[in-house]
Every structure is written in C-alpha cells, then in structure tokens.
C-alpha cells in the first residue's frame, strides 16, 4: 500500500509538472550550470512538500477563523506561523501582480462578451 500524503492521493499523484519545474530550475541558475536529474527530482519533491506544508497550515488558520475557504490572508498568516515571515512582502507583491493580470484578462474578455451581447440585443 502506498503512503498517503494528501487526502485521497498517493505520493505519485501529488506532484508538479516536471517540464515546468525543470524550466524554472534552469532559469534560476547561471547558463553554464547543469543539474543532475536526481537533484531536479529532489528539488521538485521539496517544492511539493513545501506546498503541502503551507496548504496544511493555511487550512488550520482558516479553520481557526471559522472560514470554509482558504483566502490569501490565510496563506500569509501560515507563512508567518511557519517562520517564513521574511517572504511575506514578496509573496504579497506576487499575489497583487497576479490579481492585476487576472483583472486585466477578465476585462478584456468582458469587453468582447459584452460587446457581442449588446450587438445581439440591437439586432
């Protein structure tokens, strides 16, 4: 029987896209540095464990606040509780950037769908 790390999923099911992770690893290193496959696998496993740790702590923060949905604030509190407070500003900046990009994408999509809907109403 396989160990269960994530509720209802085996260790092999809970992973990150290898190609994407390999690309990120390569982008973070100087061009003349190569990383052994075993080292890449270890880094990916560490990332999965980190995500599981943050998710679990975020869920606990969420439960303590009697909420049912994990919000970004819960993740930030989890980072603080786990000793990653020095990264909160950078994480929050990335979150804000993501929100802005998502909002821009939805506005672009909204213009097309609203314009098409208005056009149909006029006909």
TrEMBL record:
Domain Transcription factor CBF/NF-Y/archaeal histone: start-end pairs: 14-79
CDD domains per record: HFD_Dr1
InterPro entries registered for this protein in UniProt: CBFA_NFYB_domain (IPR003958), Dr1-like (IPR044255), Histone-fold (IPR009072)
Transmembrane portions of the chain: none
A Pfam family reported for this protein in Swiss-Prot or TrEMBL: CBFD_NFYB_HMF
PANTHER family hit by this protein: PROTEIN DR1 HOMOLOG (PTHR47173), PROTEIN DR1 HOMOLOG ISOFORM X1 (PTHR47173:SF2)
Name of this chain's protein: Transcription factor CBF/NF-Y/archaeal histone domain-containing protein
Organism: Hibiscus sabdariffa (roselle)
Taxonomic path: Eukaryota, Viridiplantae, Streptophyta, Embryophyta, Tracheophyta
